[in-house]
Amino acid sequence: MAASSIPIRDTSDGATFRIRVVPRASRSEAAGIQGDALKLWVTAAPTEGKANDECIRLLAKILGVKKAQVTIIAGHTARTKTVAVEGVRAGSVAAILSRS
């Protein structure tokens, strides 16, 4: 996966980037790049925030951080979302995603 093709921005307490979510997939995993976002397949349905919760869990696992460090900051009801990850820099996120 070429993480360098998605914009990852440093913030005062971490990094932000966009994800594109495909709910009701057969398995939960990072599925490459789509446009300017990391594509995530999640098994959860997009009801009652279940897909959002699964996105947070999956991103925390991929990035090696706690779930509390991952927050959806925009796009709660959309397939394209902006996430913030506390405690990591953009370069670290890009390096981890490029290995995934």
CATH topology: Conserved Hypothetical Protein Mth637, Chain: A
- Please state the second-level CATH architecture: 2-Layer Sandwich
Main sheet? 6 strands, mixed
Low-confidence stretches: none
Number of strands: 6
The helix-and-strand class reads alpha+beta
Tell me, rounded to a whole number, the average pLDDT. Answer: 92
Calculate the terminal CA-CA distance, rounded to whole Å: 7 Å
CATH class descriptor: Alpha Beta
The Cα radius of gyration reads: 12 Å
* Helix and strand element order: EEEEHEEH
For CATH, the homologous superfamily is named as YggU-like
Shape: globular
Q: Strand share of the residues?
A: 25-35%
Our count of helices gives 2
Helical content, roughly? 10-25%
Number of domain units:
1
